[in-house]
Amino acid sequence: MRFVNPIPFVRDISISKIFYCEMLELAIKQDFGNFVMFETGFAIHDGKSLETTVWGQPSAVTQPYGRHNILLYFEHDNLDGLFERIGGNVNLIHPIETQAWGQRVFRFYDPDGHPIEIGEPPGNA
């Protein structure tokens, strides 16, 4: 048994695909239309499609899928450069801060309200 990755549900796969490609510069490994796998192993899935696959029908909920109950964590070697490039173009939770454990991070929301944290890799802090 090995854990692979969480797959966030998204309301609009096209918007989310553009967001992750343009903001985080993730390259697409496979695009199945309603499911997109990026080269990093991170993936997104059209919510209504995945609800139907898992539970047999889509939910009637129309709210964003992000519920502040999972944090999507990424690392970047040039945190300051990335923040400079995207900080003004995302729904920012907070700018770069040094955490109690010494790591520098910033956090923001994706189009579905999933919180994203980007931090310096361990050893870079």
Number of strands: 8
* Unreliable stretches covering 5 or more consecutive residues: none
**Whole-number tally of structural domains:** 2
Question: What structural class should be given to the helix and strand makeup?
Answer: alpha/beta
CATH architecture of the largest domain: Roll
Separation, N- and C-terminal Cα atoms: 32 Å
Rg of Cα set: 15 Å
CATH fold descriptor of the largest domain: 2,3-Dihydroxybiphenyl 1,2-Dioxygenase, domain 1
Shape verdict: globular
Write up this protein.
By secondary structure, this protein is α/β, with parallel strands linked by helices. It has 2 domains: 1-57, 2,3-Dihydroxybiphenyl 1,2-Dioxygenase, domain 1 (Roll), CATH 3.10.180; 70-125, 2,3-Dihydroxybiphenyl 1,2-Dioxygenase, domain 1, CATH 3.10.180. The chain is 22% helix and 30% strand. The protein has a 4-stranded mixed beta sheet with strand order 1-4-3-2. A 4-stranded mixed beta sheet has the order 5-8-7-6, covered by helices on one side. A hairpin with a 5-residue loop joins strand 6 (91-98) and strand 7. The longest helix is centred in the first third of the chain and has 10 residues, at 13-22. The model has no long low-confidence stretch (mean pLDDT 94).
